[in-house]
Design brief:
- It is built from seven helices and twelve strands.
- It has about 350 residues and is an alpha+beta fold.
- It has two domains: about 35-130, PAS domain (Beta-Lactamase); about 135-340, 2-Layer Sandwich (Heat Shock Protein 90).
- The strands form three sheets. A five-stranded antiparallel sheet has the order 2-1-5-4-3, sandwiched between helices. The chain has a five-stranded mixed sheet with strand order 7-9-10-12-11, with helices on one face.
- Helix 4 crosses helix 6 and helix 6 runs antiparallel to helix 7.
- The radius of gyration is 36 Å and the shape is elongated.
Length: about 350
């Protein structure tokens, strides 16, 4: 009998040790999960709390109700959900905020009905409050990005619509329209590639010239010379300057300095100070030399309208396009605020 009793005692001790080890493992796992687990009775008083948020101790909860701990705004969210779980016997999930180290943090609260005393069938709740601060931050950034994307898309569509309308008004055939419109659309596309690579912070002048002038010019690119300080334009300004550079390059290849074998294009940019301006202006200067003799065109096509009106208006600046016998020159100035 003694041997059986001793064996039972050893078995009970082993089971108790196993149970204690399991409880310790569960407690450690809860801590790793970052979730706050707790039990509330049918009066919504805290019975026990495991893994409270930093700055809180279990005793701050045990024996208290939510109204004793949280703000009225938080109570109005979590208490109705808990009462609904008690009344319906169905799990509930809500999101709420609570102060952690003086700062509001977002939590997802999962609520499940539970029995505190199976003999008395007294109802209670088992709850898990999971920190979702990172998820909320990600959702916020996604909303901001989507709003920004929608804004940029609308602006881009407006620009494309304007280009299509004005190109159509100054084109005499469908083929002419297709050629001009496709080129301008490609110019916008290349500008967007640069902006996307830079996370829409802006576009460097050197990159705009490389994509809008040099790639388009082909073999004639060796007669394009450019230089200036390391400067980048804001996204909207970059798109319109890209269009201006494309128009100038297309004209130079067809009629101007790059249409022959000896012509040259010089592109410079810099900040210039004017006595009449409180702040320096950003200036881009395009100069063609040694090409065919130039005379002002009889018709005022959209390319010229774009260079003299659309682009300067879009960058809050001014433009001057000159047709001298030596070649075309184009000066575009804008406020320094168009730079990043």
């Amino acid at each position: 009998m003694r041997q059986a009793a001793n064996s039972n005692k050893r078995g009970n001790k082993e089971r108790d040790a196993t149970a204690a080890a399991m409880l310790n493992d569960v407690s450690t796992a809860v801590g790793l999960s970052g979730a706050m687990l707790y039990h509330q009775d049918s009066d919504l008083k805290y019975v026990w709390v495991n893994n409270p948020p930093a700055g809180y101790q279990p005793q701050q909860f045990v024996g208290h109700a939510d109204e004793d701990i949280f703000s009225a705004e938080t109570v109005n969210i979590i208490v109705p959900a808990k009462r609904k779980a008690l009344e319906s016997g169905e799990p509930q999930t809500v999101e709420f905020q609570m102060l952690v180290n003086g700062k509001p943090r977002w939590f997802e609260l999962r609520i499940a009905p539970a029995s505190l005393d199976k003999k008395r069938k007294e109802k209670g709740l088992l709850c898990a409050a999971i920190d979702i601060g990172e998820r909320k931050q990600t959702e916020y950034h996604m909303r901001v990005l989507l709003l920004e994307l929608a804004h940029r898309s609308k602006n881009l569509l407006a620009v494309i619509q304007g280009i299509a309308n004005r190109t159509g008004q100054t084109s005499s055939t469908i083929d002419e329209f297709n050629q001009r419109f496709s080129g301008r659309l490609m110019s916008l596309s290349r500008a967007h590639d640069i902006l996307t690579d830079e996370n829409w912070r802006g576009a460097a002048m050197g990159e705009l010239i490389r994509t809008q002038v040099l790639l388009f010019a082909g073999k004639a690119a060796e007669r394009v010379h450019y230089g200036g300080d390391q400067m980048s334009l804001r996204p909207s300004a970059a798109q319109h300057v890209a269009l201006a550079l494309y128009e100038l390059t297309a004209n130079a290849l067809k009629f101007g300095a790059l249409s022959g074998e000896t012509g040259r294009v010089d592109i410079t940019w810099s900040l210039i100070a004017k006595a009449s301006e409180a702040n320096p202006l950003f200036q881009i200067l395009w100069t063609e030399t040694a090409g065919p003799k130039v005379a002002p065109p009889n018709a005022r096509h959209f390319g010229r309208v774009l260079l003299e009106e659309v682009v300067p208006l879009s960058v809050q600046g001014k433009a001057k396009l000159e047709f001298t016998p030596e070649g075309i020159s184009y000066r575009l100035t804008m406020p320094q605020s168009e730079l990043i």
